[in-house]
Amino acid sequence: MSSSSAAPAINKPHWMLCLGLECMRRGEGYNETISSTTTIMDSLLSPIPEKEREERSKHWTGPMTAMVDMVHGEKDFYMPKRFLEIQDEVRGLEIREDDLFIVSYPKAGTTWSQEMVWQLREGMNLEGGRVAIPKRVPFIEVECLVQRGPGAPDKSVEGFKTLPSPRIGKTHLRSPYLPKDLLSTKGKVIYVTRNPKDVCVSFYHHEKLLNNHQYTGSFEKFAELFLEGKVAYGSYWEHLKYGLEIRQLKNVLFITYEDMKKDIKTEMRRVLEFMEWPELSQKKLDALADHLSFSSCKVNPALNFNPDGDELDEKNPKEFIRKGVVGDWKNMFSTELSEAFDAKMKSYPELMDFTMQYDA
What we know:
With 360 residues, the protein is α/β, with parallel strands linked by helices. The protein has one domain: Rossmann fold, CATH 3.40.50. The chain has helices at residues 3-26, 30-42, 50-56, 83-91, 110-121, 133-136, 156-161, 196-209, 219-228, 236-246, 257-262, 264-275, 282-291, 294-298, 335-346; strands at residues 46-47, 70-73, 77-80, 100-104, 168-171, 188-193, 252-256. The strands form two sheets. It has a four-stranded parallel sheet, sandwiched between helices. It has a three-stranded antiparallel sheet with strand order 1-2-3, with no helix packed on it. Strand 2 (70-73) and strand 3 form a beta hairpin. 34% of the residues are buried. Residues 1-43 and 308-318 have low confidence and may be disordered.
């Protein structure tokens, strides 16, 4: 076969993706356009090699950890093996016209965004906000991130299906593993991102925190795996690339953790406009901004909860919210590691026009 005849086969997935994006801009049949490519990609998930599994077991050492038996797929997608049990259910999730999905890579400010969005939808309801955020804005695929056992979340996808409208859901998945109808004309998406250096530091502490993960390796090793896309959800950079691809769509709002830190009221107004929710008075915006401040979130048990459900005391300070700052990576990164992250960013031409904010 000549090189000229081979080229169309190589370029076809990209061509189909571009056509799909154009269809979404016009409100046409995006799902039919990409259905064949997503089915093919789904089938490519496979277990990691045994040698890699053994190496992971040296760093994730908890008896209940779900982070050793992993599967991987194209574009550095990497998940616990239990994801195979729910991937078809997630892909087939029926999207309603008034659904809202908060999509982000882990530790990008998702919990903070969940609280902001839920409060805005409710017109500020601090009393209702006493209910733990996972119950108000469910984590759709959380059941696959832990081993089965007492107290472990079960049937999280099924639970989301049964919620009354309007639903708000949280997910860290990216295409093609999201619900196949999510980026059609149904529903809306708020995509949240944060600079990768701070994400890596926060993710490291998160993996150490959870009984169901129990990472006991060094930060340097975790950062190495993060760069390789060998942490849950895979490559940060592939996830961001996906977010930038969809940000131009009419049913997607793209926000950053750093912009929320700089001016939370402006970001709240953007969400209200995007969702076509009623405007809030300046008094309510001020009160909600105070509610969403780090000092308030830190002492709010509905947000800063112990994810393992253990009783908290001074010897067991398992708090979900840690520092909430921009630039904490400087306390953990060596010069060489920072340069490695910069080089990784530069290796993605699609990300070069995006201004990353590494400092407050």
